[in-house]
What we know:
The protein is mainly α. The chain contains 9 helices and no strands.
Amino acid sequence: MMMRICSPMSTTGTLLVLRTSIQRCIVLKRFKDAWSLASTLDNNTDCWNELARAALHHLDVETAIRAYQQVKNVAMVYSLHKIQHVEDRNLLAGHISLFLERFNEAQDLFLASSNPIAALEMRRDLLHWDLALHL
């Protein structure tokens, strides 16, 4: 049986140690270990969001979907499901950059992908007309 850490009896020190351990696992790209530690915390959205963002940074869409499901971020889960099976790494990274609002990076990745028109579509959807004209 798994013990919940965030009970009324838990100490701030224990929570700090757990958060530090989760951050270390994320830095080491040990997402399964970070997942296990984060699941011991009750409703700690910061940990789940941090794990999801790190997974996206490393193009681990499946882990990001599961982490965003924990914090009930339906929009991100839906968006990630739509791109989950994209094989072109540049195109996948472009979509992820777009979701994380890093538009210039997304544009560069889209232009280097097998679907460079996605850069134009992104700028059009964002109403960045001047930048869209330069593409």
